[in-house]
Amino acid sequence: MDIFCNIRFFKKFFLKNIIWGNVCREDCDIVNNFSVFSVAIEVLLSNFAVAMNGRGKLYFKYGTMGSAKTALLLTQAYNFEERGLKYLCMKPIIDNREKENVIRSRIGIERECSWIYREMNIYDYVSELYESSLVVKDWILIDEAQFLSEEQIDQLARIVDDYGTNVVCYGLRTDFQSHLFDGSRRLFEIADSIEEIKSTCACGRKTSINARIDAQGNIVTDGNQVEIGGDDRYVALCRSCWRNKRIESAERNSLKFKSE
Ligand SMILES: [Zn+2]
Predict the structure, then answer these.
(1) Read out DSSP for 219-241?
(2) What is the CA(66)–ligand 1 centre distance, in A?
(3) For the chain, which terminus, N or C, has the lower number of CB atoms within 10 Å?
(4) Quick count: other Cβ atoms within 10 Å of Cβ 27?
């Protein structure tokens, strides 16, 4: 399947460049025409080589809320730009009222991105982008990757395998009930490289839980996995503090806490 994909990609590159060569050759002699043709073939082969060698990797960099995942992504994008590497930033759209297609960090930096819609086939989107621009990206950086579907993570893996593009997914490991998100689960299953971005709880331990809180600061344990709203509804805690705070919240509300 991969080889056919690459051949299809090569064929499109080839046809587009031959057409370009034909347009340019009107007042060229046979030698110039041959040289245009040679350059076109060279460009084709170099792009084809990148597509064929499969050197890319699928990365998953996970952490809790507030662990500066987005800031790291934006820093990475800045570095790629400085080094002249071809990259693309993408992010799943959760709130349809969102107007600006930007990835924004809490520390105040932002960068333009392409939206990933719920039913979108990311492989088809990227293939069309590569074929229309005749450019294969070196890197694709994805924010909030936990919100992608299992199928979309598989599509990202195929982009890595077919085009040699490195795909870096930044996201949360678990939801407010400490269960894996679908996108994160699939990344743990198939990513080439998995890295934890660590941050520290107020008690000094490593954070591992994204606890949801209400307006009074009580821990919320019921509700939808994804809730549209501000990040101020969440606090990153270690597992021990998460348990203690749930007990405190339950006692404050005079409800009997179910012992574990
Ligand atoms: Zn703690």
Answers:
(1) EE--S-SS--S-GGGEEEE-HHH
(2) 14
(3) C
(4) 6
Residue 108 in this model has a pLDDT that exceeds 90 = no
- What is 58-199's CATH number? 3.40.50.300
| Axis-axis angle for helices 150-163, 30-53 (nearest 10) | 130
User: What residue ranges do the domains of the chain occupy?
Assistant: 2-51, 58-199
207: CA distance to ligand 1 center in Å? 7
| Cα 234 to averaged position of ligand 1 atoms, centre (Å) | 15
How many A from CA of 245 to the centre of ligand 1?
10
pLDDT band at 23 (very low <50, low <70, confident <90, very high): very low
The answer to whether residues 140 and 88 touch, using CB atoms and an 8 Å cutoff, is: yes
How far does the centroid of ligand 1 lie from the alpha carbon of residue 195, in Å? 21
Strand pairing class (110-112; 139-142): unpaired
Residue 58's Cβ-count burial label (10 Å; 0-12, 13-18, 19+) is buried
Q: Give yes or no: 150 in active site.
A: no
Which residue among the candidates 110, 131, 144, 151 is catalytic per the annotation? 144
Mean pLDDT on 241-249? 92
Phi, psi angles (nearest 5°) of residue 106: -65, -20
Q: Residue 226: which pLDDT band, with cuts at 50, 70 and 90?
A: confident
Continuous segment of H or E residues that includes residue 194: strand 193-196
Alpha carbon distance 45, 206 (integer Å): 48
